[in-house]
Design a protein that fits this description.
single chain, mainly alpha, globular
Amino acid sequence: MELTIQTFIIVCPLLFLAGMVDAIGGGGGLISLPAYLLAGLPPHAAVATNKMSSPFGTALATYRFARNHLINVKLAVPSIFAAVAGSFIGSHISLLVPEKVMAYVLVIILPLSAFLVLNKKLFNDSGAEEVTLDGRTYVTAVAAAFIIGGYDGFYGPGTGTFLIIAFTIFAKLSIKTANAQAKVINLTTNVTSLIIFLLNGQVLIPLGLAAAACNMLGGYIGAGLVMKNGAKVAKPSILLVLALLAFKIIGNGNI
């Protein structure tokens, strides 16, 4: 595919917003992936290139959470191994799926994400700030890393949100703490799937690198916002992401 100035003008500002939203409450992929599709990339190239831009912003947000001592290393280690396995499997499945099927996945993700985010009993900020290393927490982390990691390798949008919800529901963590643990998993799945897509020649590297710079800046700003405002900033941001995805689906008559 030939890259034009218009492609960069469409993708880069939206990737900045995606990085900020992803750092705040997860779900940045619900902005970044449609951005690539809006710029004219076919589904497989869009998914693959999105994996190049995503790790940079996620890595910067993860660094900020780690610097503020919000990441529990003992919980993160088994999560990383599970995330690699899940993402590896999901990425290979993605390469085998026809592009038309990939487009229909968007239609499924939107109502599922909306239900999870709008249900206040599922998504709340009443959990603990400190991580309790018991069996429930480890099972939650490993299962979420493998299952949601597989989804991230396959497609991606909403991964951060799904991880945060898993930690707040099953591990009873606060949104801020859950977000920090989710970032470690999300970074791992992004890097794993990026390697797979690079080896299969699906990534548009110049566009991915430019988008990555914008995503990093958005992620840095977003990570600072979540530490100050928590759920008050995260929830509206996720709802905005879902609304943008809805407009994308409605506007694309072939989905």
